[in-house]
Write a structure and sequence with these properties.
This protein is α/β, with parallel strands linked by helices. The chain has helices spanning 2-39, 42-68, 83-111, 119-147, 150-177, 181-210, 217-227, 262-279, 352-362, 375-383, 397-405, and strands spanning 235-244, 247-257, 283-293, 297-304, 324-331, 334-342, 367-370, 387-390.
């Protein structure tokens, strides 16, 4: 399937991107820790600790993307796509612990400040890393959007926050240069708060995906507008989307006319599913549930014994031998027209039930009420998509119709008769 191929390519592309990012982050971690050790800067130390959490996060995301590429199996029939979100949740825990550590160090430094060394070098390094972080942020967000990978996109967002943190570090170092080292400790405390905020946001987004939440209302409405104009679609509802890592699963309920054949319904569902997946390549599977609905206008027939029968008359208990049929055209649950139609097959000696069924088929009747019916005429009517309803012979045709409209009458079951007429 082209859609599956696209998703596999996106997962592989996400893994390659994460590999490159991990190399850059490793270089930054070494640089920040080295300068923090030489200068004693808490801000740079916080940046180094934050970058370690970034590195752990990147490795975890890489493993999650690798696991997501595994084919579905009997134990995991929907695949391993949520492994990416689970990995992101684990990363959020690491980031949270890191943030707590940075805050504790910052509080200690505020009350017990230390003198910084090599401030000029620390400033140069801090300024030089900002363009690197900016490019990484832009690149990861771009690949995340193109591949539909939340984990990759979230890493780009975190790098964007790192830019602000780096600016704060520079300001802290400038204040330390002019004799206010406690400001640098406040900068470290602020970075710690940013780290905590990042962990909470990442955990929240991951939990939404793992709980199948976060419905995309804009996409749902677009899918609805995509399906409604298709010929044969009477309506759509209950459109649902659930994300699993970089891909989506979706479903909808499709309303079609009650006379639509199984094959027609299947082809219609396939067309909608194909259009949706072409419009949104991140949707791996889109299941369409077909619901036949009663049309606004339809024609029904009751077996009756009198040529003067009306909707208030009781129906006959016979089918093949009934002399007449009361045929009614229904419009918006009301009787628009009705007539009594003679049944020539009632006078025949053979195949009366079969010939009566053909009479109703030719009359374009869509629903037939009967007390009992042989297997042959019942199968014939149903093969022509005509509903056959078990009537209540003790009440009028009108009351039977009302009961049917309220879903109170069941479908008729075939009853084998000793005479071929019924």
């Amino acid at each position: 399937m082209p859609n599956t191929t696209t998703i596999d390519e996106n997962l592989a592309r996400g893994r390659r991107t994460i590999k490159r990012a991990s190399i850059v982050v490793l270089i930054l971690v070494i640089t920040w820790f080295l300068i923090a050790y030489l200068s004693g800067s808490l801000g740079l130390l916080a940046k180094g600790i934050d970058s370690i959490s970034d590195l752990i996060a990147i490795i975890t995301v890489f493993l999650g993307l690798w696991l997501a590429q595994r084919d579905p199996d009997q134990k995991y029939p929907y695949g391993y796509f949520k492994a990416e979100s689970l990995a992101a949740l684990i990363v959020a825990v690491f980031i949270f612990v890191t943030g707590i550590g940075v805050l504790w160090q910052a509080i200690q430094r505020i009350f017990f400040p230390i003198e910084l060394n090599f401030i000029d070098l620390a400033l140069v390094v801090s300024i030089a890393t900002i363009p690197v972080i900016f490019v990484m942020s832009w690149y990861l967000k771009k690949i995340g959007r193109e591949t539909g990978s939340n984990a990759v996109y979230n890493k780009g967002q975190e790098f964007q926050m790192d830019i602000l943190a780096s600016v704060a570090v520079i300001l802290g170092l400038v204040f330390a240069l002019v004799g206010l080292p406690w400001v640098e400790s406040i900068v470290g405390f602020t970075i710690g708060l940013l780290i905590l905020r990042s962990s909470f946001q990442l955990a929240y987004d991951s939990i939404l995906i793992l709980m199948d939440a976060g419905q995309d209302l804009e996409k749902i409405n677009a899918i609805k507008q995509l399906a409604l104009p298709i010929l044969g679609v009477l309506g759509v509802h209950a459109i649902k989307l659930r994300r699993a890592g970089p891909i989506c699963f979706g479903e909808m309920h499709l309303e079609v006319a009650g006379k639509t054949t199984v094959l027609q319904s299947h082809l219609l569902a396939e067309e909608i599913s194909t259009r949706v997946k072409q419009a949104y390549p991140d949707i791996l599977s889109f299941l369409v549930h077909v619901e036949p609905v009663q049309p606004v206008t339809f024609r029904v027939a009751f077996p009756v014994d009198q040529a003067e029968a009306t909707p208030g008359s009781k129906p006959s208990t016979h089918f093949g031998t009934t002399p007449y049929f009361l045929v009614m055209d229904i419009d918006k649950r009301e009787i628009a027209l009705w007539e009594v139609m003679p049944n020539p097959a009632a006078k025949e000696s053979k195949q009366r039930g079969k010939n009566t069924a053909h009479l109703l088929i030719d009359a374009k009747v869509e629903i037939v009420f009967a007390d009992r019916m042989g297997e042959t005429p019942l199968s014939l009517l149903r093969n022509h998509l005509i509903q056959v309803i078990q009537q209540n012979s003790r009440i009028s045709c009108q009351n039977n119709l009302d009961a049917y409209l309220e879903d109170e009458l069941p479908p008729l079951k075939a009853k084998v008769s000793t005479t071929p007429s019924n």
